[in-house]
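Predict structure. Chain length: 173.
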Amino acid sequence: MKSLIQTIQRNGEQVPLVEKTTPLFTSSQPQEKPNFFTSPLFVFILIAVLLIGITYRDLKRNHRTRSLDVAIFVITGVVGILLALLWFATDHSATANNYNLLWAFPFSVLLSFAIAKKQPKIWVRRYVLFLTLMLALLVMHWVTGVQEFAYGFIPLFIALGVRYLYLLKVLKQ
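Prediction complete.
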């Protein structure tokens, strides 16, 4: 089959399709080995340690860091809005049917104001429960192979899950 691709038939005779091959570009730099300390996995591990550490401190002090909750809701909401716009408002096929919206829920931006209150309303707890269920659904989709996610997100998902469970406990009171 390879010989058929490399030749053509001209006047009843098989002739080479290309007379001469010349490389257009050869890389002069050797491939660098990726550095773990600049990888997304390392960055998300640092973020996860920070989030879980603050959550642990909040649990021990019996005091909720509202600014952390607002930051989580705003950041995940903005990421969700960007993903939703890429999915629905553009023709990017790579972001169509993107299950990252399960953890980066766009409405979190709007509800960041509600979570900022010292005593949020009861529906805020229900929303956090919804986010926790969406995170669990994401894990189920990942495990069953419905959609694959980057392994670097694992620390972030764990940290979000820990914080959401903490919020469920605290907002119950």
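Summary: The two ends are 72 Å apart (CA to CA).
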